[in-house]
Hints:
Structural class: alpha/beta
Strand order of the largest sheet: 4-3-5-10-6-9
Radius of gyration: 23 Å
Largest sheet: 6 strands, mixed
Distance between the termini: 54 Å
Shape: globular
Strand content: 15-25%
Order of helices and strands: HHHEEHEHEHEEEHEHEHEH
Number of strands: 10
Number of helices: 10
Amino acid sequence: MEWLNYHHLYYFWMTVREGSITRAAARLRLSQPTISGQIKALEGALGDTLLVREGRGLRPTVTGDLVFRYADEIFGLGRELLDAVHHRGARSGRLVVGIADVLPKILSRRLLTPVLASDATIHLVCREDKHERLLAELAIHTVDLVLSDAPIDRNANVRAYNHLLGECGVSIMASPSLGLRARDFPRCLDDAPFLLPGEGTALRRSLDVWLEGAGLRPQIVAICDDSALLKAFGEAGVGAFAVPSAVATEIGRAYGVRVLGKVDSVRERVYAITTERRIRHPAVATIAAAAKTHVLR
């Protein structure tokens, strides 16, 4: 069995973080040749180049970027291990949650806050990514739970189960600077600038159907996979956008936007996707219970 030299990996990781061997050597209080030699040994063991010169610094190659991401996870777990041993009983439980990037951050926070409030031992790790990539992470058990606006497809090559946490209608919101009037909703959206979520998302499909059925032809000025970027554009008056009605009030306060109208026929659903047919993990059960009683109402 091949064994990885974690000293070599650590020196590489520090070099990428610091941006140069010089800064890494100063941080580690080692000589530059020592750091260079350790990285060369790691490249030899892995059979590929990890760093290339860029200006006065270094940048990771494609392989180097992959190795760095794994190293970041490895040494992050190391810090958690020390914390768990030195402060036994505090933050000893670990819950890794994958969050689909289409979900509004405010909604994600509302879903997860009850876990932190109910169990002081939980160490919460949140990872945001695309729905499909998070399911791949779930399949290899690097995340415990995926929160998404869409269920896992029955044809997906992942053994997992959908748990519907709740649903609500959507509200169309816009900055006052756009001059769109709520009393003219939904006709005020015709030919108005509009922001759409990314293609392939459940909300995008529902909005497309609603706009078509209502005979509305807004000007699509941007399509954003990331929900935070979409709302940032909305805050700047770039276009109107849709949010779950359950968090419209908070989004209005946070971004200085207002509700033009509600569309109850477009449903925003939130699923917890786990490898358990029945939820047994206490923290996941807390999330599900809170979502069904007040988070999505």
